[in-house]
Design brief:
The complex is a heterotrimer of chains A (219), B (649) and C (311). Chain A has 219 residues and is an all-alpha fold. Chain A is built from eight helices and no strands. Chain A has one domain. Helix content of chain A is 82%, strand content 0%. In chain A, helix 4 packs antiparallel against helix 5. Chain A is globular and about 60 Å long. Among the domains of chain B are: 219 residues, no CATH class; 31 residues, no CATH class; 51 residues. In chain B, helix 12 runs antiparallel to helix 15. The radius of gyration of chain B is 27 Å and the shape is globular. Chain B starts with a helix and ends with a helix. A two-stranded antiparallel ribbon of chain B has the order 1-2. In chain B, strands 4-5 form a two-stranded antiparallel sheet. In chain B, a hairpin with a 7-residue loop joins strand 4 and strand 5. Chain B has 649 residues and is mostly helical. The radius of gyration of chain C is 19 Å and the shape is globular. Classes of the chains: A mainly alpha (219), B mainly alpha (649), C mainly alpha (311). Chains B and C meet through helix 15, helix 16, helix 20, strand 3 and helix 21 of B and strand 1, helix 3, helix 4, helix 5 and helix 9 of C.
Chain lengths: 219, 649, 311
């Protein structure tokens, strides 16, 4: 059992590394749906281990929403734009991001082992928490290193995946559902705001469009 | 006893030879100088034999020369470590002396040639005596002598303006190194009460850290560790090639000897020392080779590679301390012996490279490799020697460079036995950076050898070149033979010395390589078509191939410069001229690639400007009249009286 | 004396079997492009033909050009002693050391790069420059992958790695996935396949390895091609024997050797098909995008090390 979960941890890490470096938008969506699928499989295996029905529910929800629905919606949106690839990087190139990602996994591990040394925990849960938090941080890196807004959304979704993975192992189960709902609400609001301004824009266009709104109020 | 007397008798020949050379300056006889060099050659071989005797059979030699006062005495003690380094100095110096027999005749007037000969003799002697020194006073005395003589040697080619600047820079840096060393030695003296190199255990805390740092900085400046390395490329390229070989091959090793002596025999090192040395070694190795890749001056290129190899030696020393602190004595021994073996190997192949490239520079007349080319047909012996040197420095089996790098790689690979996760991660990062360094060094020497010796000549000087006389080939051949022999018989030599390392037996590998090459050659000779003919190089149909179609050195290193752009801060500027106004028919253009001299512009120049400002301020205070001087003296006396009164209270 | 028997059998097998996989990959790529492709034994026919042709040397070249094919094939054949294909012998004289294995291949590459510069053509210089750049940037990745492998198996000797993987295969260890991904990327890089380099082109924009051997002809070219295919077989063998070592014997015996040769050819055929399909799915990367690809392999291996260390 533990070995299978380890295998999937590895695959999830691999997908996270690929999202940081890949430039083609359709590949990004595919990799994201695979990542959500792997997390759902981890939840299913945990269900077989602990017998908690909520885990099965979470797995099914994840597959339906994140592995199928969200990528489908993103592909629909992408078809209406002229955008195929996102090649511009800011602050960190893929090489630098991967290096920082590796360092971060290590740092998260160190700080967790000192933090949680008093609590009694299972080795596996500890590992899952470390990986979850690392995926979240890597998602944040995707947000600040890319320029196109649509990639930033993928980064945000990856952050959400990471928090889901983290909470699968650490938090109490009913709590997870509440956390998920809150995060989904935030995503909904962000998406709606961005759709209003145009999803094929970059942050610079965003600023210039905002500026044009302030001119309304000048007189 | 007999050996000691023989050794010091032979060493005293050096100052004697120097004296004679200067005294007979007016004579300027060529055969006279040549005989001095042959004499030095034989004396060096004698010293080599004596030091091998000490090193292998572990017989220590003692000698006391002169007692100045109290604990200030000039005495020598040669144990295994000192004998090892003396052997290195001896062998390399002997080959340089043979080479200099013909080389010094090519530069300068008769007077300056005599002076150079004298300084060379004194330089070699002072290096021997630094290594043989028994106490700090002797060490510093001969260290200063070494620096002074090498300063004059760097200054020998006075026809170029850059020589003066390089020599001055070198002099300042070497005086700084002496200052730091003196600080460290004085601190040790106040703690232990004696100047001898004995174990000092009573140091602790901040004081110990301070002593270590001042000694480390002092030795690093002389060894050329980044960030104290800036003088090395200037000094080694401005001096004549035999002196560069001595300086780069041997003098920086003397600094390594000092560091090793203190780490092994005087201090009981802390763990953070090992980490510091390792990190400095890593940075020097990586940055050294990256800066070497952009150089097109063959001597600056070789100088940066010296920095890289010193970095590798420091990495071995740092690993030694780390493994020692974690109680892994086999791995510690492996790293230490690897570092020391790399010292020997680097002395051998770097001198080989400097001497053979010195022959090339002598014949062509410029150090710029972009004006050479096709020399392997015109200077075949020098070419083969340079090839041996390049293969050794690129660490290809079965040469000696490979064996020492293998030992350090093995030490890195087994670093997972350490428990501390931080240390493990640091060591694995170090491993990958070390691999990168090694691969980049190979790339750099493909460029160097390929551009200098292969393809077609790029200038008239290269086209009309010829090989040097046999005297200038004997010296480097000795070094080349040592390179291959040390590599192949490394396993046997280590076993004989009593170190049982789990290393591959390169003699077996060498024999299998030989066997298979003969088999393949026989097979091809029997089975394949025997005809061969020569024709033009494939040029896509362009008929007359000339040297402007070859790859240049700048073009060769351009992909690497682009990939490592953050390090070089490469700026490319392209100016194109067109025939028409629409910019479509290209006429000609210039492309420039600029790299940024980080250490010069961000560290050295600001420090130099700051010091200049202070000295300007102070010298302004000097240009005053008599009354103000008396005011100064008056203020000083009043202050002194106040301080004395306050202190006595 | 067992070792001499091993050396003989291993080397002979490597020489016989290597050209097969080269043509197999070409055939797979041809199928994906809707063509028939050359016959499976085409490489053997090509080597035979090359041996019977005369050698043409350039006016500008020197003895480096004449020496390099022999140096190449010798280094590769000695390196093949380090990778047991059929059975694992007792380690003798430190043969099997990972670093020596890697540096024998670097030696071959060094001389090939020199030979590229030798004829004075722009193609050769360009090939050498790119080859040394790519090899320099991929070297840390290779070392870390083998360091991770050594960490997992607790030894740095290839023979011991193989014999311990026979006893407890890595397939069920999650680190195996990461290591095999990295080893696969290294295989692609070292054998100059798409997306690093195109082995079937002769346009100056797209060749690295081919540019360096452009001037060779006759038996020299046969030796260079053979050494290239031996290198590919050796790296494939490392990947196969680490992941799926069943069939690799520990003692020489007629039946076990026959069985292991058949199984090896089978496993290598599967790997060649995977390589062919992988090559057909990508276009060649721009040269300056390659460091990102290597960084991915580096990330995988470093994560393996972190996993193992922090367990």
């Amino acid at each position: 059992m533990n070995d299978i979960i380890d295998v999937f941890f590895v695959l999830i890490l691999a997908t996270a590394a690929l999202i940081i470096t890949v430039r083609t938008l359709s590949s990004l969506f595919n990799i994201y749906s695979f990542q959500s699928l792997f997390i759902a499989v981890v939840a299913v295996v945990l269900f077989f281990q602990t017998g908690n029905i909520v885990l099965l529910l979470i797995a099914i929800l994840t597959i339906l929403s994140k592995a199928l629905l969200v990528p489908y919606v993103m592909r629909r949106i992408q078809k209406n734009m002229n955008l195929k690839r996102d090649v511009e990087f800011r602050y960190l190139t893929p090489i630098g991001s991967l290096l920082v990602g590796t360092l971060m996994i290590f740092l998260v591990y160190r700080s967790f082992s000192t933090l949680l040394s008093e609590l009694s925990y299972d080795d596996l849960f500890f590992f899952g928490a470390v990986i979850g938090l690392s995926i979240t941080l890597m998602g944040m890196m995707v947000i600040f290193t890319r320029k196109k807004v649509i990639t930033k959304i993928i980064g945000y979704l990856m952050m959400e995946n990471g928090i889901l993975l983290f909470s699968l192992f650490i938090a109490e189960l009913p709590f997870i559902i509440e956390v998920l709902i809150v995060i989904d609400l935030v995503i909904l609001i962000t998406l709606a705001t961005i759709l209003a301004y145009g999803i094929d824009s970059t942050i610079d266009d965003f600023h210039s469009k905002l500026n044009s709104f302030t001119l309304w109020f000048k007189d | 006893m007999f050996l000691t007397q023989l050794l010091f008798l032979s060493l005293s020949i050096f100052p004697l030879a120097a004296l004679i050379a200067i005294l007979f300056a007016a004579k300027g006889s060529r055969t006279f100088r040549q005989s001095i060099y042959w004499l030095l050659f034989s004396v060096n071989l004698l010293v080599l034999l004596i030091s091998i005797n000490t090193a292998f059979f572990n017989i220590d030699l003692d000698f006391q020369l002169y007692r100045l006062a109290g604990s200030l005495q000039i005495s020598f003690h040669i144990d295994r470590l000192a004998a090892f380094f003396m052997g290195i100095i001896a062998f390399v110096s002997s080959t340089v002396c043979v080479y200099s027999v013909r080389y010094t005749e090519h530069h300068g007037s008769a007077r300056s040639k005599n002076f150079t000969t004298a300084m060379t003799a004194l330089f070699i002697m002072s290096m021997y005596l630094v290594v043989a020194a028994d106490n700090s006073f002797t060490f510093l005395f001969f260290w200063e002598l070494m620096s002074l003589t090498s300063f004059f040697l760097v200054l020998s080619d006075r026809s170029k303006t850059e020589t003066g600047k390089s020599a001055l820079f070198y002099f300042i840096m070497t005086q700084m190194s002496t200052t730091f060393l003196m600080l460290g030695f004085l601190a040790l003296y106040t703690v232990s009460g004696s100047m001898q190199f004995i174990q000092v255990d009573s140091l602790s805390g901040l004081f110990k850290a301070g002593v270590f740092l001042s000694l480390f900085v002092g030795f690093s400046i002389k060894a050329g560790v980044i960030p104290f390395h800036k003088w090395l490329p200037y000094a080694h390229s401005a001096s004549p090639s035999n002196i560069s070989a001595l300086m780069s091959g041997v003098m920086i090793k003397v600094a390594i000897y000092g560091l090793t002596r203190f780490l092994l025999f005087v201090f009981s090192p802390d763990l953070w020392w090992g980490v510091t040395i390792l990190v400095f070694g890593l940075v020097s190795a990586l940055l050294g080779v990256i800066y070497a890749l952009k150089e097109h001056d063959i001597k600056k290129l070789l100088a940066y590679h010296s920095i890289e190899n010193i970095g590798i030696i420091l990495m071995g020393l740092g690993l030694y301390i780390i493994f020692l602190k974690y109680d892994f004595s086999t791995l510690a021994n492996l790293s230490l012996i690897g570092a020391l073996f790399h010292t020997l190997n680097h002395a051998l192949f770097k001198s080989l490279l400097f001497l053979s490239s010195g022959s090339v520079v002598d014949v062509i007349g410029t150090r710029n490799i972009e004006e050479m080319g096709g020399l392997i047909k015109r200077m075949p012996y020098t070419g083969i020697l340079f090839l041996f040197g390049s293969v050794s420095i690129a660490a290809l089996p079965p040469f000696n460079g490979f064996v020492s790098e293998l030992m350090i790689f093995q030490a890195f690979l087994h670093s997972f036995v350490i428990d501390n996760p931080f240390m493990k991660v640091l060591l694995f990062i170090g491993l990958s950076l070390f691999a990168l360094t090694s691969a980049l060094a190979a790339a750099c020497f493909v460029k160097a050898f390929g551009v200098i010796f292969l393809a077609m000549p790029r200038s008239n000087a290269a086209r009309e070149s010829h090989d040097v006389s046999w005297i200038m080939i004997v010296g480097p051949s000795m070094l080349a033979a040592a390179c291959i022999l040390l590599g192949i018989f490394s396993y046997q030599i280590f076993n004989w010395l009593g170190f049982a390392f789990p290393l591959p037996d390169l003699m077996v590998i060498g024999l299998s390589l030989l066997f298979i090459v003969v088999l393949v050659w026989l097979f091809v000779k029997l089975v394949a078509n025997k005809h061969s003919r020569t024709s033009e190089t494939w040029g896509c149909g362009i008929i007359s191939q000339n040297s402007s179609m070859e790859y240049t050195a700048s073009g060769f290193s351009e992909p690497i410069l682009t990939i490592f752009r953050p390090v070089y801060r490469t700026r490319k500027t392209v100016n194109r001229n067109f025939h028409d106004n629409f910019g479509s028919i290209f006429k000609d253009g210039i492309a420039e690639i600029h790299t940024f001299k980080l250490f010069e512009e961000r560290i050295y120049l600001p420090v130099a400007r700051f010091v200049q400002k202070i000295s300007d301020y102070v010298s302004n205070k000097h240009d005053v009249d008599l009354d103000t001087y008396i005011l100064y003296s008056f203020t000083a006396i009043v202050v002194l009286i106040l301080i004395t009164g306050w202190l006595i209270k | 004396m067992h070792f001499i028997l091993y050396a003989f059998i291993n080397t002979l097998f490597v020489i016989l079997v290597s050209p097969l996989f080269v043509s197999l990959i070409k055939k797979v790529k041809a199928f994906t492009q809707g063509r028939q492709g050359p016959p499976i034994f085409q490489t053997y026919f090509m080597l035979n033909k090359l041996l019977s042709k005369e050698r043409v040397y350039s006016v500008n070249s020197s003895l480096i050009m004449k020496m390099t094919p022999y140096i190449n094939i010798t280094c590769m054949l000695v390196a093949s002693l380090f990778v047991p294909l059929l059975y694992v012998p007792e380690p003798v004289a430190g043969i099997g050391n990972v670093i020596l294995f890697l540096y024998l291949m670097v030696c071959a590459k060094f001389f090939m790069a020199l030979a590229g510069l030798d004829a004075g053509s722009t193609f050769g210089g360009m090939g050498s420059s790119r080859e040394m750049t790519v090899s320099a940037v991929v070297e840390p990745v290779v070392i870390i992958v083998f360091a991770a492998l050594g960490l997992l198996m607790n030894t740095s000797n290839l023979h011991e790695i193989f014999s311990s993987s026979i006893k407890s295969s890595l397939v069920f260890n999650p680190a195996a996935i990461l290591i095999s991904l990295s080893l696969f990327i290294i295989l692609i890089v070292e054998t100059s396949r798409i997306p690093v380099d195109n082995p079937e082109t002769h346009l100056e924009l797209t060749m690295i390895h081919e540019a360096m051997i452009l001037e060779y002809s006759g038996s020299d070219l046969a030796l260079m091609e053979l050494s290239h295919s031996i290198k590919q077989t050796l790296l494939m063998a490392v990947l196969i024997n680490v992941l799926m070592p069943f069939g690799l014997a520990l003692e020489p015996g007629i039946t076990s050797i026959l069985l292991s040769s058949v199984l090896f050819i089978l496993k290598a055929v599967i790997l060649s098909v995977i390589i062919g399909i992988f090559e057909a799915s990508f276009a060649k990367y721009r040269l300056f995008r390659l460091p990102s690809l290597f960084m991915l392999a580096f990330f995988f291996s470093f994560s393996t090390i972190l996993f193992e260390l922090l367990r």
